[in-house]
Amino acid sequence: MRIGIFGGTFDPIHVGHMIIGEQVMDELGLDQVIFVPGGIPPHKEASSVRASAEDRLALVEAAVAGNERFSVDRVEIDTGRAMHSVETVRILKERSPEHEWFFVTGADEVSNLLTWKEPDRLLEQAVMVAATRPGYDLSKLDHLESGLQNFDRIFPVECSRVDISATGIRRRMLQGKTVRYLVPEAVREMIEEKGLYRGDEKRNEGEPLKEEIS
Ligand code: ATP
Description:
Strand order of the largest sheet: 3-2-1-4-5-6
Number of strands: 6
Radius of gyration: 17 Å
Order of helices and strands: EHEHEHHEHHEEHH
CATH architecture: 3-Layer(aba) Sandwich
CATH class: Alpha Beta
Distance between the termini: 28 Å
Helix content: 25-40%
Bound molecules: adenosine-5'-triphosphate
Structural class: alpha/beta
Number of helices: 8
């Protein structure tokens, strides 16, 4: 089988993520996309993550519930610390080495690949799928060629342009504005039920602050 791993903070998951998962799956003929919440990317301050790991996980579970080809994995959350992508992929791949693995991430993050831990090893383990995001200029990936032996394992996929970000959703929530249709309905309901992103929740309750990590 061809399996995609889609890692992110998912704080919260939104329809931009769902569209990437679906379109990458279609474009590359993947059998499954596994969403892996937990990791804090290097450009994000741990303190900027608003919801607890368990709440973010629950939101992703609610989002993927209706799609039999989408699933969620708790590997990063259960590890209890932020993980390098190369480590996440290695663990998932060790469980099922017979599959062909793809690592899905936004093209803007792929452009920083040289700062990640062991990028060439990551590319050996999985084909890197660079999902484009609004306004993205693919030539921003060109500089990676001279720094990577496995540059040809980076595969840009043009996804529908959806100008939605988790930051924007959190901002709207803080302002008391609607996020209906920006997130799957089940996610919106869960955000309401749990009272998340209103600015008065105890941040990362029960979760130690994570170090910045790539
Ligand atoms: P934040 O606004 O908090 O930075 P985000 O919306 O970018 O969050 P992440 O959880 O960091 O969400 O996203 C996971 C991956 O999805 C990242 O690689 C990111 O680049 C990508 N991504 C998120 N939203 C979009 C979008 N609308 N179009 C393309 N890629 C996206």
